Amino acid sequence: MNKIIYLGHYSLDNERKVSPAGNTMMNYVINVLENQTQELYIISIAQKNKNLSKEISNLDNKKIIYLPSYKNDGIFNKLINRYKRKRDLYNELNDLLEDGDILIVYHSLAFINLLRYIKNKKNVKLILQVCEIYADVLENEKIKEKEIKCIQQADKYIFSTNRLEEILNKKNKEFVICMGDYRYNSEEYTKLFDDNLIHVVYAGTFDPRKGGASTAILSSMFLNEKYHLHIIGFGSEKQVLEIEKLIKSTSKKCTCKLTYDGLKNGKDYIDFIKNCNIGLSTQNPDASFNDTSFPSKILSYMCNGLSVVSADIPVISNSVIGKYIAFYKNQDPKEIADAIMSIDVNKSKNIKRIMDELDVGLRKSVLKLLIDD
After folding, report:
1. Is 62 in a helix, a strand, or coil?
2. Nearest CA-CA partner of 245 in 257, 232, 228, 260
3. What Cα–Cα distance (Å) separates residue 366 from each residue in 29, 32, 163, 243?
4. How far out from the chain centre does Cα 136 lie?
5. If 0-12 CB within 10 Å is exposed, 13-18 middle and 19+ buried, where does residue 143 land?
6. In the chain, N or C: fewer CB atoms in 10 Å?
7. Is 284 in a helix, a strand, or coil?
8. In a 3-state reduction of DSSP, which class is residue 322?
């Protein structure tokens, strides 16, 4: 098998700007790919807020290439830096790709013109990993048209949901479904809480378009003193300030404990959620992007032993893990609280078995995707 190149926004440290969910997904796919090739290259376009030259990390049988980073200090520099990042990426791919190689791209609007360029310049097998249609979140039909044309350039796909495959795979190209990281985490963790409370966590974006963080916070008003609701996640500076403000005002009205615990990454994130009992996936069920987007945080919770409360969205309820989740129908704080309190945290859960089955199946499917023509 020729070498495999995996492209996306990826980071092994906490400084580069990446989506925690996307980074987790890439980590899992990297783990799957490591067993299939002796030549694995990960190219990351993730940026730090500083000027840096290209960095290369050699780890076991994989090489991670971090492309140069540029500090955006002003509108003019922001435009120039956009050009520089595109130039760096195209040059790196031109130098690295050879005929017969496999290029796996984690779909992003940043690559909207890249795939056509690659197909015209290189004789490679192009596999596109699509976890959502980003224009659905932006609610921009013009961008959506370009995005879908970009997606059609791929030879094969890794989709996060069957619904995405139905919408995007019109030519019935080969594909696999990977909802997230299926590896069950049985490792020991640092004990953080010793208070006999039921710890509930919302981990994810503070983007108001997703609607999850604020609704999770408001659900605390309907929880009793047995519960501690934690909010951890990420967003713009303004979004973080708004969340902190909402937590401060809401905590005065509830009997449960409500705290903002910052952004957690890597081991800090794993240790934190493994100390919790219930994970919340509370994005707005009426949003258009829910038709295609699977919240990978659900698998992150489950693989670390948490019960899950989620909005009743078809891509989740119709999935193989739907029967393990406590659903609520409407984006109403009281309904969310009722779903939380319906969970018996002392009841044993056999989540490991289904995760192990999904993991084995995914690895076999990815191998077939890589070697079949």
Report:
1. strand
2. 260
3. 9, 8, 19, 39
4. 16
5. middle
6. C
7. coil
8. helix
25-39, 139-153, 205-219, 276-290: lowest mean pLDDT where? 276-290
Helix (H, G, I), strand (E, B) or coil at 24: helix
Q: Which two tokens stand for residue 224?
A: 């009793």
Q: How confident is the model at residue 350 (pLDDT cuts 50, 70, 90)?
A: confident
Least confident range of 154-158, 292-296, 298-302, 327-331: 292-296
Mean per-residue pLDDT over the chain, rounded = 90
Is residue 213 classed as helix, strand or coil in its secondary structure?
helix
* Mean pLDDT across 78-92: 91
- Full DSSP string of 223-282: --TTEEEEEEEE--HHHHHHHHHHHHHHHTS-SSEEEE-----HHHHHHHHHT-SEEEE-
Lowest-confidence pick of 109-113, 136-140, 143-147, 189-193? 136-140
CA distance 164 to 130: 8
pLDDT tens digit string along 297-307? 899 899 999 99
Residue holding tokens 């401060």? 248
Secondary element (H or E) of residue 148: helix 141-151
User: Binning pLDDT at 50, 70 and 90, where does residue 287 land?
Assistant: low
Question: Are the C-beta atoms of residues 131 and 294 closer than 8 Å to each other?
Answer: yes
Show the tokens assigned to 352. Answer: 């490991």
For 60, left (φ over 0), alpha (ψ -120 to 50), or beta?
left
Distance CA 352, CA 302 (A): 8
Please, how many CA atoms are within 13 Å of residue 303, restricted to the half-sphere of its CB? 22
Residue 373 has pLDDT above 60, yes or no: no
Give residue 16's pLDDT: 85
Q: What does the alpha-carbon distance between residue 19 and residue 325 come to, in Å, rounded to a whole number? A: 24
Q: Distance (Å, rounded) from C-alpha 373 to C-alpha 369?
A: 8
**8 A C-beta contact, residue 34 and residue 60:** yes
